[in-house]
Specification:
The protein is an alpha/beta fold and 474 residues long. It is built from 14 helices and 16 strands. Strands 3-2-1-7-16 form a 5-stranded parallel β-sheet, covered by helices on one side. Bound molecules: flavin-adenine dinucleotide.
């Protein structure tokens, strides 16, 4: 028997208008719900625009959501070439911004609105009486900077993790001097060849991180070095995992990633890229010539001088704004506790998680969900397609279609080459140990790719002719 509860129209606040927040709104509208999307940026996809120069590793066909496509197609929109690899900016300009212009979505998206906290009306975290019937209070700062509150029946937090990068310290905290010198430190993937060029051209830069984001930055800096000879690049890996990063699994399964690795190796061998493995940064101080960085490198204390640092060591969720919500969050990964063991980077270096929905994303407070990149907590393996399935399921649940909410409607490629402690013989897909800095996505064994995803020869990380295409979220 179909378990459907009718007339359950909900006022749902969606936090963030990235690809997953926009998809959430489209699914809710399709289900007759009334979403309101609060986005702190001045455009939809504003986090993505910050890495707009980076080419995705997924082709277009894995970057768009069915419910959003339906709204777009009503306006005559045509899907970009499904096999092409878009850049972040392409996704925003050719998909998210047109979606936000559709009559259905335009009326529900509020830009320049930053959510600062979520609570339950007249209930602090420890107040249990009649808690499930209390509205959510969404505290936000409007575009004029005024603090406001709106009520909601349900909350979908799709605010991503881009605004909360991991700091430099191996203990997960900023090292002394890191915050004081933030004007000389960039987190993520700065566009060193274009918008951020003047900060890096002819300068000495230390890139920290062991993922493809870090390789990407290092290789872009090498290009800059080709044009501006005085540019110097040091690449610091906090773990001694270079061989895994540059070798075997990458080359076997992901030709384009292999090319990235080969290019990096060539640069290291020629001395163009100076490598510091096992790097432990202890302190950063401003000196006349730039930054003096006290490090332990291969057990020896030393100081290196650079002008700038790029930190590409992953991201973490902002849980501060959820302090008054009763979350069910894993203490290691900071993802919902049912989901966390499936994506824990201590055990998985790849996107081995099965498609999932409302069951895995439920918290103690009813009607509250974290989705998208933020739902993966500190794990770096999130895929947009997974997020689209999450919000499809949650929208069905909120509309009372409990069967559909529990039915998995997405088939992801099998990740046949993932490294897992359970399978000692498996090769890490991304060529990294399953560690905090592991690179994000995964390469399924070619034979394991299902019919539904015929041309995804490397699963979520479809190889590209252009090696720059393979920058991952790690
Ligand atoms: C460099 C890079 C490459 C990637 N490549 C791929 C790929 O090829 N394929 C793939 O499937 N995935 C990829 N990912 C992973 C992931 O799919 C993307 O990060 C995607 O953007 C996540 O979507 P999201 O909607 O969850 O979060 P985001 O895109 O980060 O969107 C969150 C939105 O919420 C807003 N926001 C944040 N805080 C607040 C607040 N307090 N109030 C209001 N608004 C707020 C932000 O401004 C932002 O617009 C990549 C990630 C990175 C970083």
């Amino acid at each position: 028997m179909k378990t459907t509860q009718s007339n359950t129209t909900k006022n749902v606040v969606v936090i963030g208008a990235g690809p997953v927040g926009i998809a959430a709104a489209a699914h809710l509208i399709e289900r007759g719900q009334t979403p309101i999307v609060l986005e702190k940026g001045h455009t939809v996809g504003s986090a993505m625009l910050e890495w707009g120069h980076v080419q995705l590793f997924s082709p277009w066909k894995y970057a768009t959501d069915k419910a959003v496509i339906k709204l777009l197609e009503k306006q005559g929109w045509q899907h970009p070439d499904k096999e092409q690899l878009p850049k972040g900016r392409d996704i925003v300009e050719q998909y998210l911004q047109p979606a936000a212009q559709t009559p259905e979505l335009q009326s529900v998206i509020k830009l320049g609105v930053e959510v600062t906290a979520i609570s339950k009306e007249n209930h602090s975290k420890h107040t249990s009486t009649d808690r499930d019937n209390a509205d959510y209070f969404v505290h936000y700062r409007d575009s004029e900077g005024e603090s406001q509150i709106i009520h909601a029946d349900s909350i979908i937090d799709a605010s991503g993790t881009w605004s909360a990068p991991n700091p430099i310290g191996l203990d997960g905290l900023p090292v002394p001097g890191e915050e004081d010198n933030s004007d000389s430190i960039a987190y993520g993937i700065p566009d060193v060849l274009n918008t951020a060029r003047k900060d890096y051209a002819g300068k000495r830069t230390l890139v920290i991180g062991a993922g493809h984001s870090a390789i990407n930055v290092a290789l872009e800096l090498l290009k800059l070095q080709g044009e501006e000879k005085a540019t110097k690049i040091l690449w610091g890996l906090r773990k001694n995992n270079l061989e895994k990063l540059l070798g075997g699994g990458i080359n076997d399964e992901l030709p384009a990633r292999g090319e990235l690795g080969i290019a990096a190796k060539r640069a290291i061998d020629s001395g163009a890229l100076e490598l510091l493995t096992g790097l432990n940064v202890k302190k950063i101080a401003k000196v006349e010539s730039g930054l003096a960085i006290s490090i332990i490198h291969e057990g020896m204390e030393q100081t290196i001088d650079v002008d700038r640092i790029v930190v590409a060591t992953g991201f973490r969720p902002n849980l501060q704004m959820l302090r008054e919500v009763r979350l069910d969050i894993d203490h290691i990964v900071e993802a919902p506790s049912i989901l966390a063991p499936l994506i824990d980077p201590n055990h998985h270096s790849c996107g081995t998680v099965k498609p999932h929905g409302v069951e895995e994303l439920t918290h103690h407070d009813k009607g509250f969900y974290i989705v998208g990149m933020k739902s993966y907590g500190r794990a770096p393996t999130f895929l947009m397609l997974t997020g689209y399935e999450q919000v499809r399921s949650i929208a069905a649940e909120l509309a009372g279609d409990f069967d559909s909410a529990r039915r998995v409607e997405l088939v992801l490629p099998q990740t046949g080459v993932c490294s897992s402690k359970k399978s000692e013989s498996a090769t890490s897909c991304c060529g990294t140990e399953a560690v905090e800095e592991s690179t994000s996505c995964c390469a399924p064994a070619k034979e394991a790719i299902p019919e539904e995803l015929p041309s995804l020869s490397a699963g979520c990380c479809a190889p590209a002719a252009n090696p720059q295409a393979l920058s991952c979220c790690g």
